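Worked problem 6 (solution included).
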Amino acid sequence: MSLDKDTVARIARLARLKVPEEELVPLAGELSGILAWIEQLNEVDTRDIEPLASVSDVTLPMRADKVTDGGIAERVLANAPGGAVYLDPHDRNAGGFFTVPKVVE
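Solution. The predicted structure is:
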């Protein structure tokens, strides 16, 4: 596919790019070369090629997906504004919550 000066000017206008008149002809040649390279790539048969996520065939180690709170709920809630409310009053590391003052009225 070959682009001419008018087509490049229209593409530049649609892309909201200001291209000086003297640069339209060299830009048309460069864009035509890029389009020719893309057409060449389209000729390659890629039907039996698996998608590539990485250039190396290495899988990352996975850790067990389990929820932990660190067992330090009492330390986390120690400076809670207005005090903390614990889910289990007898076990302060069982978790809890605190309230915050309203910011938006």
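Discussion: The radius of gyration is 31 Å.
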